[in-house]
Design goal:
Tetracycline Repressor, domain 2, 68% helix, WHG domain-containing protein, DNA-binding, HTH_TetR
């Protein structure tokens, strides 16, 4: 019989909190069982194994990011939309480093289809409509933006910019200015 109060949703949220505290790599069913002061076996009626738990955390993180992104984009276009969307990723990574790492998990095709990943791509493409890009340039631009956002956030989180000037906020703003300029002047093939 499952321990009262334990649900898949509650375990997923607790796993996400654990990821933010100890890092996504430190999230296991055993670590979660210790958090709830229960035996590991009592969690297996809610999650299959550590990989299942990690996948559920990734899906939660992608959903949270998509919800924040949608809220940030409402009523915005062009550079304003680009900056708002980029800031969602950066802010989320700072507030929830473990969940942000989870959002990078490579999902199996079934989980990927159920994820909010397609919402992220749709929002990015909505931003790009303000720059009048057509295919295949839109796909190239989606990949570019994802790479720049993730690369900057990951380097910043790893402390790569911590001992240099100008400050990271100024560099972030200049990076967004540069992306806007590039998207407005996308090179012809």
């Amino acid at each position: 019989m499952a321990r009262a109060g334990l649900t898949t949703n509650r375990l997923t949220r607790a796993g996400a909190e654990l990821a933010d505290e100890v890092g996504f790599d430190g999230v296991t069913v055993s670590a979660l069982a210790r958090r709830f002061d229960v035996k590991v076996a009592s969690l297996y009626s809610h999650v299959k194994n550590s990989q299942d738990l990690r996948t559920r955390i990734a899906l939660l993180a992608l959903e949270e990011l998509a919800d924040r992104g949608a809220a940030a984009l409402a009523g915005r276009a062009g550079k304003d939309a680009l900056a708002a969307f980029a800031n969602v990723y950066r802010d989320y990574a700072r507030e929830h480093p473990g969940r942000y790492a989870a959002a990078q998990l490579r999902l199996d095709p079934e989980a990927a289809a159920a994820s909010a990943g397609s919402r992220h791509a749709q929002m990015t493409r909505a931003i790009l409509r303000g720059y009048d890009l057509t295919e295949p340039d839109q796909t190239h631009a989606v990949r570019l933006l994802g790479s720049v956002f993730h690369g900057y956030v990951s380097l910043e989180a790893g402390g790569a910019f911590s001992h240099s000037t100008p400050g990271t906020q100024e560099s972030w703003e200049r990076t967004l200015d540069a992306l806007d300029a590039l998207l407005r002047n996308w090179p012809a093939t």
